[in-house]
Amino acid sequence: MRVSADPLAAPRAIGGRAPDVFKPGGWVEMRSYAEDDVVDFVVIGTGAGGGPLIARLAEQGFSVIGFDAGPYFRPLEDFASDEAEQQKLYWLDQRIIDGGNPIRMGGKNSGKAVGGSTVHFAMVSLRFRPEWFKSRSALGYGADWPLDWREMWDYYTRAEKALSIAGPVNYPWGPKRPRYPYRPHELNGAAELLARGAEAMGYKWTATPLATVSAPHGNSPPCVYRGFCRFGCSTNAKQSQLVTFIPRAIAAGAEIRDLAMVGRVETGPDGRATGVHYHREGRWRFQKARNIVVAGYAIETPRLLLASANDRYPDGLANSSGLVGKNLMTQSNQAVWGVMDKEVRWNKGPPSLAITEHWNYDDRKNFQGGYCWMAQGPLPVEWATVVTGSRKLWGAPLREQMMQYNHQVGLKMVGEMLPSERNQVTLTDEVDQYGLRIPRITYSWSDNDKALIQHALGEMQTSLELVGATDIFRQEDDTNHLAGTARMGSDPRSSVVSADCRSWDIPNLWICDGSVFPTVGGVNPSLTITAIALRTADRIKALATRGEL
Amino acid sequence: MTERYPGYDVLAKRRTPSWNEQTRQVIDHRLAITREPRYLLPELFNILDAVCARIVPQPGDRPPVPLAALVDTKLYTNMQDGFRYAEMPEQGEAWRRGLAALDEAALAHYEKRFPQISGEQQDDILRRMERGELSGGALGDMPAQMFFAHRVLLDIVSAYYAHPTAWSEFGFGGPASPRGYVRMGLDRRDPWEAVEAKPGEEETARHENARVR
Question: Which of A262, A407, B138, B156 has its CA 20 to 30 A from that of B194?
Answer without folding.
Answer: B156
